[in-house]
Amino acid sequence: MALPRNLLTDNPELYEARFPDPDRLAGRWTEDCLRRYGAGPRVLDMGCGTGRDAAHLAGVGRTVTGADVSEAMLAHARVHHPGPVYVHADLHGFDVGVFDAVVCLDSALLYCHTNAQLDAFLTSCRRALSPGGLLVAEMRNGAYFLGRTDLLDTPTVSSFTWRGTVHRSTTTLTVDRTAQLLRRTRVWTSNDGSAPVEQRSAWRLLFPLELRRLLTSHGFEVLELHDGPGPRTEPPWREGRLPAGTTDADRLHVVARLNSPV
What we know:
The chain has helices at residues 12-18, 25-36, 52-59, 71-80, 115-128, 208-217; strands spanning 42-46, 63-68, 85-88, 99-104, 129-140, 156-162, 165-176, 181-190, 197-204, 220-226, 251-258. The mean pLDDT is 94. A hairpin with a 4-residue loop joins β7 and β8.
């Protein structure tokens, strides 16, 4: 799968400036999940991006492979977040070794837009996991958009400064009900005289019961499925906070164990 041109994924340092995580919240949340369910040391971070979370997991003693489809992200990760082994791989089908856990954070799983792509991802996870291995994923919650339009009504404007240049983004979200996708149009402008850049992307909208059934059909036992707390929730997760019993808010978190063969 070739990535479309994208200002942030093509410029990993810019990505980290736009989405700072100085406390490694996502990595710590993931390690908490892995530790709580006794995962072994071998971890695959699928869709690892700049490598921050993979490096955190390596730093606490795990043997980590970070995988991504973006060569720019992988090159950045190898230099700036050493520790893991970084490899090129596609969510829609991969075979990069055997692990005790597969991690897929920040809605990366939702770039599987079709049922066939979701099946291919979970088939690859099943192949990659040792018996009893864990899948830990964090993503947008499709159920949030049932009857809610607050994230759709008004474009979201944000800005940040990187190396003296102010970058401003205007993001519009729309729901494609037929394809069950959340489509995003983002227009970037900056004060350095560059022409505006328009980018389009999409996430699959998965609903909690749909995700549970999908995982079960691929041989996983769902251990947790909830809307928080997590690294992207408000308030965010912190050590000692246990999962909620609801799946109503805008993020969805899942921990599933691959059933051992009978």
